[in-house]
Amino acid sequence: MLVLESLLADFTQELKDIHKIADLLNLKAKYIGKQGPLADVMKNLKDATPEEKRTIGVRANELKQAIESLVGHKMQELELQEINAGLAISKIDVSLTDSVIEKGLQAAGYHPVTIVQQEIEDIFISMGFEVLDGPHIEDEYHNFEALNIPASHPARDMQDTFWFADKKHLLRTHTSTIQIRGMKERKPPFRFVGPGKVFRCERTDASHEMVFHQLEGMMVGEDVSVGNLIYFMKTLLSEIFKRDVEVRLRPGFFPFVEPGFELDIKCLICAGKGCSVCKQVGWVELLPCGLVHPNVLKAGGIDPEKHSGFAFGLGLDRLVMMKYGIDDIRYLHAGDLRFNSQFKSF
Ligand code: PHE
């Protein structure tokens, strides 16, 4: 018993001088490891009376737990110290911009996709829309099922999906996932946009990338109609391009809208003559949209008898390309500073 009772005091005393994780682990082994005094006491118990076995056994266990808990706390403290020490070494002074410029080094700037995304967010905010976010890693339910795309539906082939090994999770193939999340969290009437990266396992060329950007939009209320949809889309495009753009509306099929449309704009790179961006047709598909399918409203907890809505999925990268006259989408992800620095800096 004597050894036992001084054990905790000795341990606490020695713990004070520990400043490294490795030393802490050694100290822990010294006291409660296989060769430690506590283990010795337990070994010697075999010669003790049943009464002694009980009291000493209980006490030994209490001490072991007390030491383990002290080690745990100290470990957290030391880990935090290590992180802080690492941060102190790698500290970056973000106020250095001016001196960096003086030295002739390049100042950072906004990526063109960020510039356009923020511009569009502002336009929508001014029209009373909220801006929502959603996860990149999604499940089948939010990406497909809730959007009226059941497992057997051919529309699943339209989107080449990056699946995770568990076959249940995926990288979202579109921002329409945000429709479902947004609807569930609010009651009509509401309107929101949801910008972000989307991922598709596609062969890349001048107009296709595996990672690109969309901005989802949704408005739900009583009597929301195609008229509302067209009004908001026209306002958006004239604000973005600050000039008249020619648009055309074609029927388009997406399982989560009915009726569905494709809104195209006359290619601003070649003025409709035909180029690599518009695949020589003179028009660029920019804005798939439509009235929200009743099944999708239901999945979002909304009664389709009482409310209707519109949704659209704006392709941000193509819009950026039109706006700045960029003829290959791959520039957007190449990370080439000569390209990136041509846009507005901080
Ligand atoms: N989610 C569709 C896509 O990525 C676009 C879309 C959004 C179509 C909303 C209609 C309504 O292709």
What's the layout of helices and strands?
Elements: H1 2-15, H2 21-32, H3 37-44, H4 50-89, H5 97-102, H6 112-126, E1 130-131, E2 137-139, H7 140-143, E3 169-171, H8 177-185, E4 190-199, E5 211-221, H9 226-241, E6 247-251, E7 257-266, E8 283-292, H10 294-299, E9 308-315, H11 316-324, H12 337-340
Parallel strand pairs: 1-4
Antiparallel strand pairs: 2-3, 4-5, 5-9, 6-7, 7-8, 8-9
Helix pairs in contact: 1-4, 2-4, 6-11
The structure holds phenylalanine.
The site of phenylalanine has 11 residues, from strand 7, strand 8 and strand 9.
State the CATH superfamily name of the largest domain: Bira Bifunctional Protein, Domain 2
What would you call the shape?
elongated
User: If you consult CATH, what is the topology of the largest domain?
Assistant: BirA Bifunctional Protein, domain 2
Number of domains: 2
In the CATH hierarchy, what is the class of the largest domain?
Alpha Beta
- Tally of individual helices: 12
Based on CA atoms alone, the radius of gyration comes out at: 31 Å
Structural class: alpha+beta
